Amino acid sequence: MKKLVAECLGTAALVFFGCGAAVLAGAGNVGQLGIAFAFGLAIVAMAYGIGPVSGCHVNPAVSFGVFLSGRMSLNEMVLYWIAQLFGALIGAGVLYAIASGQSEFQMGEYALGSNGWGPDYLGHYSMQAALAFEIVATFLFVLVILGATQTRAPSAFAGLAIGLTLTVIHIVGIQVTGVSVNPARSFGPAVFAQGAALSQLWLFVVAPLIGAGIAGVLFRIKLLEADGPVVSAEKAVEMTEQAATMGDS
Asked: Which one, 96, 115, 128, 249, has least CB within 10 Å?
């Protein structure tokens, strides 16, 4: 139960902070870079806040990749999915309740930071471009997650690495799809926005699962599994300092 509550609250926070940066702060004020960092910093915060409890998946695609890598059971994955989808609805609901309090607020087809593609969405990219981006971006995102959280990685830095990866993915892809790489993140806003956001939701379920599945399988077959002894956080810091010293010299 602790894990499910953590996943629910973590997903709600991700949707609220990430989509809220675009809806409440406004893209015209914080810009694409600000929105990208809102998503990335939300993940960093949740990684250290709920990571010790649930692993901070807050993303059905991540749970799918973890399942395929052999690190969680099918039953646990399904329960995580339910908690994450419910959390996304909570986050989007809170965002809607606040945003609708503004006199100029209007519920468009892609309201509340919904994902999408096509001539009426941001960069006007095609469905094929959106599909390709979401598959590749999710693959890289889950690859970093699985790599940074494996037993031989310096786990103290995992949350930071994962958050920065999500940030750069948003910097690159906001104009393409608004960036999903997370079916729950897309699900919450789309349920409230309806319209095109809801009709295009299928892509933001299928593509992230494909990308995450590829990453999970690569770790399952040990192709990306690290060799050698476990590296502690202290050792990692020492190695970084040594490398910096050598660079200065």
From this structure: 249
